[in-house]
Amino acid sequence: MKKYQAAIFDMDGTMVDNMMVHHRAWQASLKKLGTDWPIEKVMQEIHGVNEEILHRLYGDRFTREERLAISAEKEKAYREIFLPELKLIDGLATYLNQLEAANIPMAIGTAAPPENANFLLDNLPIRKYFKAIFHAGDVKKGKPDPEVFLLGTNALKIAPENCIVFEDSVTGAAAAKNAGCAAIIVTTTHKEEEFAHFDHILEFITDFTEVGALMKYFE
Questions:
Q1: 103 in the same domain as 66
Q2: Does the residue 177 lie in any domain?
Q3: How many CA atoms lie within 13 A of 154 on its CB side?
Q4: pTM metric for this prediction
């Protein structure tokens, strides 16, 4: 088995199980805009960087400033809802400790806006583990474009093919593949069969409690 040299973590749905909170916040925001979608359609259609989502759904109906304002309101609601229950996915704290002890460099590559990235990192004691953190404010194109993960591999100075990306979404898995990285999928948000067309996925996990099994990729 190939030994990998670095780990890049997505954030939402991968480090914290928060995607349903996001979906509910988006559902409420879209309803205010006249789009009354069931939660299943929100889960299917809403992915990527907020401004791109709004432009994809509504074209030029809103100015860039209006899209940014809508996005900020949605994210504020998400943070207020999620703060009382904010915690890492089971086993992740131990896994980050193990990776650090093994001198495996780590980065974050998230589609979240900077406010949400800092919200998580300011309220959970994990910032110290990551040599680089990239969010929606750092990229020109959101996932499935590989930009955010390539920023991570460049910052860690590790070739993409030697990095594992931890992701939960289909678009995130596509971004990892487009970057040339292997992936491990956390099934908090999507089912395994939704990833059947990918050939770069090492395995599927429900959480990080099997630390020994996950460390094998770096040993």
A1: no
A2: yes
A3: 8
A4: 0.83
